[in-house]
Amino acid sequence: MTEYGISLKGGRGMTSSTSRPENSMQTLISDLVSHLLTHGQYSSLFEPFYLDITQSFYASESMAHWDMVNVDTGAFIAFVNSRVEEEKQRAKAVLPSRSWKIVEDVTEKALLGGRLEELALKGIFHCLVRGRSLIPFFQNVKH
User: Fold this and answer.
1) What is the reported pTM?
2) Is the model more confident about 122 or about 143?
3) For residue 138, what are the CA distances in angstroms to 64, 82, 115, 123, 143?
4) Is 3 inside a domain boundary?
């Protein structure tokens, strides 16, 4: 729970019987967004809040995953791509279309956390040291 009475990100990945199903949170958020759009308050009130907690959530998750994968560039890029896609689908389920790309960009930036250059250098280095082709590495990188 947040001070606002709902946790928009807390249910992600939870499977215990005590966690609230994501679908009910999506319904709640979708209803709230609809109400705010009706009253012209979505852009000024909700969207900045949603973007802020999205950025915070994924920045924190990224740091934890970065340490966990021990900088395996392929695994980290696959993780980033997967989480960006999940958030895109979540945004499409609850937010107006004008927010989808913004949410995707915020999510990707938070997950990469300024590590793009380091990822590229380490990925290229590992491929070269192991005598592997760079093509699979670059196929995982989003254009």
Assistant:
1) 0.71
2) 122
3) 24, 16, 16, 9, 9
4) no
